[in-house]
Amino acid sequence: MVSPCLQGDISHCVETTVPQVQLPEDILHQIHALMPLRDAAQAACVSRGFLRSWRCFPNLIISIDSLGIKENETNDDEIKSDFICRVGHIIQNHSGMGVKRLIIQTYPWSNIHPSYIDSWLRDAITPGIKEIEISMLRYGGIKYNLPGSVLSSSEIRSSIQIFLLAECSFHCAAQIGCMSSLKKLNLHSVHITGEEFYGFLSNSCALEQLRITNCNDIICLKIPCLLQKLYILDVLGCSKLEMIDSNAPNLSTFFFSGHPIHISLGDALQLRKISFRRYNSPDALYYASIKLPFIAPNLRTLVLSTSDETINTPKAFGKFIQLKYLEIVVSTSKFSQDYDLCSLISFLDASPTLESLTVRIAQPTIRRDSVIEDSSGYSRPQCFQEQCHDNLKNVMITGFCSAKSMMDLTISIIEKTKALECLTLDTTRGHDRRFAKIDKCRWMNKEALAEATKALNAIQRYVKGRVPPGVNLKVIEPCSKCVC
After folding, report:
1. pLDDT at residue 473, as a whole number
2. SS3 at position 208
3. Quick one: which H or E segment has residue 87?
4. 309: Cβ–Cβ under 8 A, 6 or more apart, which residues?
5. ∠ CA(371), CA(374), CA(379), 5° rounding?
6. Where in this chain does the record put each At1g61320/AtMIF1 LRR domain (predicted)?
7. Distance from C-alpha of 71 to C-alpha of 221, rounded to nearest angstrom
8. Using CA atoms in the order 111, 112, 113, 115, what is the torsion angle rounded to 10 degrees?
9. Which of 41-45, 339-343, 476-480 ranks highest by mean pLDDT?
């Protein structure tokens, strides 16, 4: 049953005559604040103590789940009307004081009139609020434009620490004013121009984490040097973005996913981790090898994802002098059969302090250059880069295949690394990333199993005998339940 507190004025709720345990009011409020919204409303219906604290309940999380609304119970218009009614009662019965966290998610409706959202925000966003999340569903419905008036109070702006907007417009951003306490900002599919966004960032000097996703109106993303505390920058899928120009001096983590653009991270002397993924465009590994040593000279962790390399990875133009962990993820759906996997060794040569290397072939690789099917036999060509590596201890290759260039890469690693302790060759899609809830039979088909069998034979014939006695060789085989 729906709580009366969600249906009407909770001032008319009646307290039961059950004997009560007397607790200090501040402890009672703390207990109440830890309850989910619906449980807190129901508790307020049976206790005067909880009823008093309900009027300043700190966590207003508005969604169909938190309100206990079931989809497909009736037609969509009735469900939407019920949602609007319940939210209106909750906001109306709340004093507006004490709200620390406000989350409004309008899924599954894209046509809730903006006037309702404006009214809820005006009543719920009050001085002292710390977290605001407004997540609209925009699917051919009414586009919501966040009004600057809800953030006009300096007392409100000075208390907000976390701000998330999704599927709406935020064109008033530059005129908002100083957000002196804002630490985390997340914009997803938000209509905002680069100039508007720069104005907002210039007023957010305490910002520590910034994530923008699918904000397709931004052409140039400029990060002002005023953001002295910014240490995480994530930019994903902004289709019109042409440039990232960051002058944040203490940036330590950068994640980029998108098409080729110009990236400038200033001096970036504190940058320690980069995750770099380019989609719908080739040669991410080529770009990384010739650009990243100069963009981020002090990297310690580097994760590269690619789906299409038209040319082999060249010798790096610079050095990753402090790089400790390198992960290369290869999606083989469009990957060229002519790409020489052994050219990945150039990253090893450019990373003298590297300790851990992971190469992930995201899908089972069916290569036409299998050493097993070569009647002339396999003989490894002389490697053109024979310098030794003194620090690499752990190497893992998942999606290991029987391709000649894969054999070349593996044997080159064995011969070049004098400190190698563990070599893992995984012929599946990656045993270390499986989830227990996923049925194992989804991982491999019969074609992939045949390639895994070839890879196992290649390991036995060409790799195993070359592994030094002190190295722990782990070979991961598909089990009988892995095939559908």
Report:
1. 96
2. coil
3. helix 76-93
4. 282, 283, 284, 285, 286, 335, 336, 339
5. 60
6. 90-480
7. 39
8. -160
9. 339-343
Question: Distance between CA atoms of 61 and 91, rounded to whole angstroms?
Answer: 11
Residue with tokens 């630490």: 183
| Amino acid present at 462 | Y
Which helix (H) or strand (E) is 423 found in, with range? strand 422-426
Alpha carbons 117 and 134: distance in angstroms, whole number: 9
Q: Given the DSSP bridges, would you call strands 262-264 and 301-306 parallel, antiparallel or unpaired?
A: unpaired
Residues 6 or more apart from 150 whose CB is under 8 A from it? 118, 121, 122, 125, 156
Distances (CA, A) of 414 to 185, 278, 469: 45, 30, 12
Q: Which amino acid is at 251?
A: L
User: Which residues lie below 8 Å from residue 81, measured CB to CB, with a gap of 6+?
Assistant: none
* Contact criterion met (CB below 8 Å) for 26 and 49: no
Distance (Å, rounded) from C-alpha 127 to C-alpha 484?
A: 57
User: How many Å apart are CA 1 and CA 9, to the nearest integer?
Assistant: 17
Q: What pTM does this model have?
A: 0.84
Residue 251 Ramachandran class (φ > 0 left, ψ -120 to 50 alpha, else beta): beta
Q: 160-195 pLDDT, tens per residue?
A: 999 999 999 999 999 999 999 999 999 999 999 999
Q: Phi/psi of residue 474, each to 5°?
A: -115, 120
**374 by DSSP, 3-state: which?**
coil
Of the candidates 407, 404, 397, which has an alpha carbon nearest to the alpha carbon of residue 428? 397
- Token pair belonging to 88: 């209106």
Q: Give the integer Cα–Cα distance in Å for 295 and 288.
A: 10
CA dihedral angle for residue 162, residue 142, residue 83, residue 55, rounded to 10 degrees: 40
Select from 343, 340, 344 the least CA-distant residue to 369: 340
Centre a 10 Å sphere on the Cβ of residue 431 and count the other Cβ atoms it contains: 18
